[in-house]
Each structure stands twice: as structure tokens, then as C-alpha cells.
Amino acid sequence: MEQIISTKNNKVKQWASLKQKKFRNSTGLYLLEGVRLVEEAIDAGAPVVEILISGDPQSGRFDRIITGATGLGVELYEVSESVLEHVADTQSPQGVIAVVKKSEGDAFAFVANKEKPLYLLLDGIQDPGNLGTMIRTADAVGATGVFVGASCVDVYNPKVVRATMGSMFHLPVFDVELKELLPKLKELGVSVVGTAVDTDQTVFAADFGGAVALVIGSEAHGVSDEIAGLVDTQVMLPMPGKAESLNAAIAASVMLYEALRQRI
């Protein structure tokens, strides 16, 4: 296991640069922090490239990670605490960071020939915690896939990755242009359902039993006009209380679990 103790090392500079979207885009790599997330990635067979460990590798704390990484041919580095803190996005990193390749896949090829799929489409989501929570909820209900529109926060933002709690390794997640994907879904007979405040149909009256794509809009403005023009049905979440609105991740959870209720 190669040792690196200086933050001026070129490898360290490359790793630290992945905290910025432009370098994630140019390299096709992103960072995972924490024992649980790295274990999830290894268990799922994610394309882990390198793993940084700070602390005694012989302590037993990292046994599963080291064993799994060795089996996958992943490069391991023993780094100083200062190096780990320099690379990490969090204030108190848990002693391990993985460098992972972004998922690659053709969203249009993926949606072909799916039987009664349940898709989650996200439009303009800007809060990393919300985006990660939505992916985690989609995983929980057994959704077929998640499609993140170009106007959303980066899926590989460290805060998004942490918020997924490993769910991003359990179901397909695609970066897409929704305005291009939606017509294709409709051609395939997928019912596209979006949220709106100016409709009388509630989420509980909608039919989610067949092939369906649920569209959730931004926290501040909802589904954009461009995307709203492409949906088949608009539904609202009834709020008999005095709250003005619901958190976008909560709205997605309500819709996903209503779809699950109708399917089980």
C-alpha cells in the first residue's frame, strides 16, 4: 500500500480537485467519503478506482474495504490525516475516501422494453440533500430508475452522494435532458405525471398502476413550464393544514409511496 503524507503530492491535488464539478466532468471521477458508503460501493461492484485510508490499516476497521478492494484490483493508498482532510468535503472525515468512475449508460436504451416501469424524473432540483433523499426513496420503493434533468444540482456533488446513503449504487441514475426523454417515454406508452397547484386531481386519485414517470420540480418554482407542457397528467398533494408548501423530497416520497401502494 503506497503511502502519501504531503498535501503537495500531485495525486492529492488531483483527488482534491474532484470536489469541483468541472473536474468531475473532465475526469469522469467523483469522491465517496466514509466507511459505510465505500463498503456499499464495493459490495455493489461500483467502478472504484482508488481508495485512500488514514489510520492503521491493520486495526480491523477497514478489513472489509481492503479485502473487497484487493479482490477488485483497486489501488490502495495509506495517507496522512492532513491529506485526508485536504481531500475530504466534510469537516470530520471517517478515515476513508474512494475515487469512483461516474456511471455510464444510455438512458434511451434503458427505457426500451421495460414492463410497467416506475420512473422518477427530477426537474430543477437544487438542494443536494433533497436530490440525494429522492434517489434514496426511489431505491426504497423499488423504482425502475431515476432521471436527473440538466437543470438539477450535480448528482456527483459530495453532499448528494452522502445523502443517497449508498442508494445510488442500487438503481440506475441517469443525467438527461428531460425535454428529450419525455417524448420518448410517451412513445413507449409511459404515463407522465407532474405536480401542480392549479389542478383538482389529487395524487391519491391518479392511476400509478401501469407504466408511469413521476416528475418532481424545483423547490422554489415547481415543474418548469417547458417540462409541464410535456406531461400527460397533473396532480396536487392535498394540504388541508396551514403549511404553504411541501419540501420537494417529501412530495416525491408521497408520490412514490402512493405508486408503491397501488402496485402491491
Automatic annotation (TrEMBL):
GO terms for biological process: methylation. Gene3D superfamilies: 3.30.1330.30, 3.40.1280.10. It holds the Pfam family SpoU_methylase. GO terms for molecular function: methyltransferase activity. It comes from the Bacteria. The keyword Methyltransferase applies. Residues 31-106 form the RNA 2-O ribose methyltransferase substrate binding domain. Keywords: Methyltransferase, Transferase. Belongs to the class IV-like SAM-binding methyltransferase superfamily. RNA methyltransferase TrmH family. This is RNA methyltransferase. It comes from Tumebacillus amylolyticus.
